[in-house]
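Re: Re: ligand-bound prediction request (bumping)

Still looking for help on this. To restate: I need the protein modeled with zinc ion bound, output as structure tokens. Inputs repeated here so nobody has to scroll up.
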Amino acid sequence: MTKKTYDVFCLHCEEGFSGPVGTSFFGFRTFDCPHCKKTSTYPLFLKYRMIYLALLVFMVIAFIGIVSKGWFAYPGLFGLAVIYVVIKDMVVKGRVDSIFSIKKPAEPSKVD
Ligand SMILES: [Zn+2]
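Reply:
Sorry for the wait, this slipped through. Here it is.
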């Protein structure tokens, strides 16, 4: 089974290339740049974003419920991981959007 390939831009050297998508530990899309050999992290797969956002909503509701009873609440390691992933997803999405607005999408890569 061959993996689906995408036309993307490297977030390190900004070269365009077409490559198979990978998945990082937290569910981010990753692409290995053939030019600089670095791995570009792209935003979450949609299904993972839905799961993280659902977890975040659940955490906020639980947090409000606990605090409203006069107890002290703070996010645990798992909660911090969810917050980290949601923020990173927004940062990565902004970076990818800006690179795609500068470069033309699906520009055929130069043949040297
Ligand atoms: Zn690169």
